[in-house]
Amino acid sequence: MQDLSAIDLTTTTFVDLTQPLFSGMPGSKVHGRAEVWTEHPFPAGYPDGCHIAVTHIKLAVHLGTHVDAPRHFIPDGKTVDEFDLERFVRPAVTIHLPRQGSVPVTADELAPHMDEVQPGDFVFLYFGYAERFLDEDFHEHPYLTLDAAQYLLQRGVSGLGVDTVTPDMPAQHRPPDFDFPVHKTLLGVDVLIFENLGPGLAQIAGTRRLVVAAPLPLAGDGALVTPFAVVPAPA
């Protein structure tokens, strides 16, 4: 892993990998609606003209750019705060797999792009959906097959990231017996899942970069994250 102490800030830049946080942002219906609002209280005893702004957020931790912990699908699985912080600081290989619509991505399709992946790395999949976050068809997205998830385990990855709401089949196409095979396969062995990654993925597609994706320290099944990639500054 890259030595953080060796990073020269004069020759380094950072690429934001998040989506914006706002009221009504896209997400699964089961997670409810995000609300963001600002109040301007005027505390007693403060001077006239004193301006105070207080912004509030009310949302499920599985909205916006976030990480799924095992507890999300595994009853006795780890919560976010039970992972060492270093688990959220890893090299990430970002694979550009442009797709249109609800199409499966198999292990055979992943394999040709995995040469740089080392055990312990994150793998981020850039389907081209990050830029469609506000589009009506954002939920009609690509997804991984079970064999693709199993292949990632065989390669020893420590985290999977996607620029969609889930790496599993979109809700509108799931059969009655659907059991979230990708989530259960990965989270069942403590492989983290990052969802709703942002347009910054385009800048690191096809590369292996150090990524910092520290979550809020919640004793829960997921948490908001603001991941960023550490990259050489343009010449």
From TrEMBL:
GO biological process: L-tryptophan catabolic process to kynurenine
Pfam families named in the record: Cyclase
Superkingdom, natural source: Bacteria
GO terms assigned for molecular function: arylformamidase activity
InterPro entries referenced in this protein's UniProt entry, alphabetically: KFase/CYL, KFase_sf
Full protein name: Cyclase family protein
